[in-house]
Here is the input.
Amino acid sequence: MIENHDSEDNPGPEPTSPAADGPVPQSPAPAAEPAPVTPSPVERVAALEIEKAECKDRMLRIAAEFDNFKKRTRKDIAEHETRAREAVLRDFLEIADNLERAIGSWKEGGEQDIKSVQNGVELVLRLFKSKLDRYSVTAVDAQGQPFDPRVHDAISQSPSAEATPGTVLRELQKGYRVGERLLRPAVVVVAVAPPAPKSAAGKSDGSDAQTAQSSAGGVDIDLTGDDEQPSKGDKPS
Here is the structure.
């Protein structure tokens, strides 16, 4: 049997590299970027017109939205004010109901039932004050306090020996605050110092005249304002 040694002795043709066969193909060079095209004046004007139309449309939309926002805000404010008034009036309707009951009880009982009417009115007043406290409404302290034009409204002055001048002598109408804000000033009468007695006034006038005479060196000074005096030789006409 004959062995085939050709595959071992003659392995066959060796693979050839591409360089041996011929030159290596090079990659194509990148194409040059085209020069920017300058738009013509007509094209620029057309582009600006489109941009202007877009800005105008955007501004019109913003203006419409803002107008709708203002309308909604005014509507909400009016609704809140109405609800606040309704809440306050609903509380004070209870006071009106109690006053009507007190008047009806007085008419039914006649003059003999005055005490019960008084008790009913006092009850309504306490209820009214409790409603004011609920809304942070407090009374302004005025009686006997120094006059404060920020919270007091003086309509007159009255001399008083007991009260300190410049203080509130009488409170004619209560003032109220809502929180820290003044709701209504208190109407008051302010005390002033009483006038001096007439005897003391006359005595003071005499002492003033003596002081003026002594200061003039013993020369009489006419306090009446008559400068011309008749001499000894002249007779009065």
